[in-house]
Design brief:
By secondary structure, the chain is mainly alpha-helical. The protein has 15 helices and 2 strands. It is 63% helix and 1% strand. It has a two-stranded antiparallel sheet. A hairpin with a 2-residue loop joins β1 and β2.
């Protein structure tokens, strides 16, 4: 326990900056931003189009209002302009410039404002919070999503006794398509659940992110580990009940990367690491070939059709046809597709609902921003993958001491990146909303603070705390 003098002449001890009211509010704001970004569909289903737009405007204006004074005070650290994720920012700039040649200028401007808001918030969180605080903020946001999902599913199953529509609209007479429902009330009947996000695939991938985050915190010996274990069980329950084949593939890839990273950490010599690279890269090539050759029986085992639930026949072919019209710079940015615009309304439908993305992030980028956009996104993700991998397997070192202990937190960026890349084969979310936020946030944080506990933000706060302690006799 810290000891302070009671001498009447001595100055009163200042509280640590992380526990000050202002910083606690900053962390709470970051949790709110992450919650709204990951649970964007819940906000839409609850408040409607107008309400969701108001929430977006509020957070878009609030972040500069908080960040600009922080930069003016030069705290908690100078903004690392040179460490910005330039490939991701280049993609953001190209998305705005594409309004010049866009085939759908209204959706381009509308969705670019959403992309810009997400980008600004991601840069702000990476700049304002330390690595520990970012992981804790992600954990808190996931807990809110999972907890509210459980409460909503229980309410629909035990009180409503039937599915509910978005905005709590009354169900019309007659049979309607189940895909229109917000929550179908399947918690106790064994069918797939949707949670507050209203989508089984989205709930599954968020549950996977939550599992990874909780596991990292548990390994880092976070406080209240019993409660953390209970949250982990809830995330595993929702991952299983959501029944997403994409999420299962992402989980398998994350587990493999985790095993390889831990083995790399145990390797004592560069030669040992080289042998591990040869074994695992060769094994990965063989596994990919086997999955490609056996994809039909594997998909049948998971209860999915060989065309990935209509993706290759209904969606990808039409997207490639439109991408071929303007292959270099694309047809214009729109992520997600705006369903009420004539360019997308009724273009591709699934169960009578207009599809709002290509269900493959690379095809989506190719159609929207052409080969140039694909190159920028590839550079952004490859840069994050490269940096996050060595962030995970290299010992923390900033002087001659080379035997410092690893931190469990350094595993999180590489696991998240692999999940996003695997998901990008069947979904477009890695280039929009929370997928884009994770890309920008992790890229900027790793470049500006490459060591957990030591670096720009961490070093500044450690120095401040040390000076405060030295002032007390």
């Amino acid at each position: 326990m810290a000891q302070y003098t009671k001498h009447p002449v001595a100055a009163l001890p200042a509280p640590p900056e992380r526990e000050s009211t202002g910083h606690l509010m900053l962390r709470a704001y970051a949790v709110a931003v992450l919650f709204v970004t990951f649970a964007h569909s819940a906000v839409y289903n609850l408040l409607g189009e107008a309400g969701a737009a108001i929430v977006l405007i509020v957070f878009t204006l609030a972040t500069p209002a908080i960040g600009v004074p922080m930069l003016a005070r030069n705290r908690p650290q100078p903004f690392a302009w040179r460490r910005l994720p330039w490939a991701a920012l280049g993609y953001t700039a190209l998305a705005l410039i594409s309004v010049v040649w866009s085939q759908w200028r209204g959706p381009t401007l509308l969705t670019w404002m959403l992309l810009a808001a997400v980008t600004v918030n991601a840069l702000f969180i990476a700049h304002a919070l330390t690595w520990h605080e970012i992981v804790r903020a992600l954990s808190s946001a996931f807990k809110w999503i999972l907890g509210l999902s459980l409460l909503l599913e229980l309410w629909v199953s035990l009180v409503v006794h039937g599915p509910i529509l978005p905005n709590f609209f009354e169900r019309p007479d007659g049979k309607i398509n189940a895909h229109w429902y917000w929550v179908r009330g399947n918690l106790f009947d064994g069918d797939r659940v949707q949670g507050i996000v209203g989508n089984s695939n989205l709930l599954a991938i968020i549950s996977l992110f939550a599992l990874l985050t909780f596991g990292i915190l548990f390994a880092a010996r976070a406080r209240r580990r019993t409660m953390l274990a209970l949250w982990t069980l809830l995330a595993a329950f929702f991952l299983f009940r959501a029944g997403s084949a994409t999420a299962y593939a992402c989980a398998a890839a994350a587990a493999l990367v985790l095993v390889v990273a831990l083995l790399m950490r145990r390797a004592k010599t560069p030669g040992a690491r080289t042998r591990l690279y040869v074994v695992f890269i060769g094994g990965a090539v063989v596994a990919v070939l086997a999955i490609w050759l056996l994809q039909k029986p594997l998909l049948a085992l998971l209860g999915r059709s060989a065309d990935l639930t209509g993706r290759s026949d209904k969606i990808w072919e039409k997207v490639l046809e439109r991408a071929a019209e303007h292959p270099i710079f694309g047809n214009g940015f729109s992520s997600p597709w705006v369903p009420f615009d004539p360019a997308f309304a009724g273009w591709i439908e699934d169960h009578g609902i207009t599809v709002f993305h290509a269900h493959n992030m690379w095809l989506d980028v190719l159609m929207q921003l052409g080969v140039v956009g694909v190159v920028l996104v590839a550079l952004a993700y490859l840069s994050l993958l490269w940096r996050s991998w060595f962030f995970a397997i290299d010992r923390p070192r900033w002087d001659l001491q080379a035997d410092r202990s690893y931190s469990a937190l350094t595993l999180l960026p590489s696991l998240f990146t692999v999940v996003l890349l695997v998901q990008g084969y069947a979904e477009s979310t890695p280039i929009m909303l929370w997928g884009w936020m994770l890309l920008v946030l992790l890229s900027f944080k790793i470049k500006s603070v490459p060591l957990v506990g030591v670096g720009l933000s961490e070093r500044q706060r450690v120095t401040d705390h040390g000076e405060r302690r030295r002032r007390v006799p």
